[in-house]
TrEMBL record:
The lineage of its organism: Eukaryota, Metazoa, Chordata, Craniata, Vertebrata. The gene is GABRR2. GO terms for molecular function: chloride channel activity; extracellular ligand-gated monoatomic ion channel activity; GABA-A receptor activity. This is GABA(C) receptor. One of its GO terms (cellular component) is chloride channel complex. Residues 26-225 form the Neurotransmitter-gated ion-channel ligand-binding domain. It comes from Gallus gallus.
């Protein structure tokens, strides 16, 4: 039965008297010149099927794409007689013997034709001389990216095709079916980007030394996924800022606790900033993520400076109190004291009565000053009542413990940081 089939279906490779080159008259023509040499420009249609977007590199500012590139043109030198009007299909070995368009990728860094298991090249010739030339190519091309809004950015990249040798007077490169000339695989996806759209354009490119060339563009827009950066950058930075606020609730006398907390948050913020910049190109402008991280770093650093101010003012206050004790030995052993500034509107008797001094212990007249410092020794109940009485007098100022700065910081720092976040996300989102 098998032998019967072979007898019925003749082997067409044996019935032809000549080789394929002879059938296509390859040896009869000079294929180093384009079709219709000396005449009008030969039209070469192009269509592309994108198989995959392999990677997007922010550091190198490039992208890698695998695609099927197909050319369509007519070369009457390759026409052959056929009763069935069937085309003939060849692999890459015939390509080296005929004329094919010299299309290259503008701004490409690396590209290659796949060769597993053989060269991924297909040549199909029709009886009237129409030719289909298809290749499977992976190309890495440059993409000019703007990171001013990173990571809340969108990037538009283009793959550009152009004839290397033939100007628009010799070769007219065009999209074969307009926007329908570009096909993409529905399964194309990237881990960090959402592919929004693909589209095609064409225009003329001018070179001062050689002339005008037809150039085709495959453009696509990518929108970055923000969730990864929220988890890896924004949330850790925000938590470090909030952690630095914990020091406002720690006793100002706990120096090791507050200093170690401040230094830890500062170093952690520095690590976050370094990690983000390590995966980015060294651009000369400020990125959106830089604004957020550096403002967060400033908040953390200010919390350290805040405690430095608290500690310094506490030391100054204790030094003043120590000097006053030495100046007024009668106050020694008094259990509870407050420091008050009186502005001279008070009489000497009023001041001493507030301080609890008898008239026999009044300071001599020559030692009076316009502003006198009085240490008041009071019980808790009498102290509060006398303070309420003093608040009504202009010029009376109570120098309280410096932890009041912490009280203000508990409100000012969170409020300012929340306001910054509202402005930041409303501008960049």
């Amino acid at each position: 039965m098998i032998s019967h089939i072979y007898k019925k279906n003749h082997d067409v490779t044996k019935t032809r008297k000549g080789k394929t080159e002879q059938l296509l008259r390859v040896d009869d023509h000079d294929f180093t010149m384009r079709p219709a040499f000396g005449g009008p420009a030969i039209p070469v249609g192009v269509d592309v099927q994108v198989e995959s977007l392999d990677s997007i590199s922010e550091v190198d500012m490039d992208f890698t794409m695998t695609l099927y590139l197909r050319h369509y043109w007519k070369d009457e030198r390759l026409s052959f007689p056929s009763t069935t009007n069937n085309s003939m299909t060849f692999d890459g070995r015939l390509v080296k013997k005929i004329w094919v368009p010299d299309v290259f990728f503008v701004h490409s860094k690396r590209s290659f034709i796949h060769d597993t298991t053989t060269d991924n090249i297909m040549l199909r010739v029709f009886p009237d001389g129409h030719v289909l030339y298809s290749m499977r190519i992976t190309v890495t091309a440059m993409c000019n990216m703007d990171f001013s809004r990173f990571p809340l950015d969108s990037q538009t990249c283009s793959l550009e095709l152009e004839s290397y040798a033939y100007t628009d007077e010799d070769l007219m490169l065009y999209w074969k079916n307009g926007n329908e000339s570009l096909k993409t695989d529905e399964k194309i996806s990237l881990s960090q980007f959402l592919i929004q759209k693909f589209h095609t354009t064409s225009r003329l490119a001018f070179y001062s030394s050689t002339g005008w060339y037809n150039r085709l563009y495959i453009s696509f827009t990518l929108r970055r996924h923000i969730f990864f950066f929220l988890l890896q950058t924004y949330f850790p930075a925000t938590l470090m800022v909030m952690l630095s606020w914990v020091s406002f609730w720690i006793d100002r006398r706990a120096v090791p606790a507050r200093v170690s907390l401040g230094i830890t948050t500062v170093l952690t913020m520095s690590t976050i900033i370094t990690g983000v910049n390590a995966s980015m190109p060294r651009v000369s402008y400020i990125k959106a993520v830089d604004i957020y991280l550096w403002v967060s770093f400033v908040f953390v650093f200010l919390s350290v400076l805040e405690y430095a101010a608290v500690n310094y003012l506490t030391t100054v206050q204790e030094r003043k109190e120590r000097k006053l004790r030495e100046k007024f030995p009668c106050t020694c052993g008094i259990p509870h004291s407050k420091t008050m500034m009186l502005d001279g509107n008070y009489s000497e008797s009023d001041a001493n009565s507030l301080a609890g001094y008898p008239r026999s212990q009044m300071v001599p007249e020559e030692e009076k000053q316009e502003k006198m410092v009085v240490h008041l020794a009071m019980s808790n109940a009498s102290n509060s009542s006398r303070k309420r009485g003093l608040k009504g007098h202009v010029g009376l100022r109570i120098i309280q413990n410096t932890h009041a700065i912490d009280k203000y910081s508990r409100l000012i720092f969170p409020g300012t940081y929340i306001f910054f976040n509202l402005i930041y996300w409303s501008v960049f989102s």
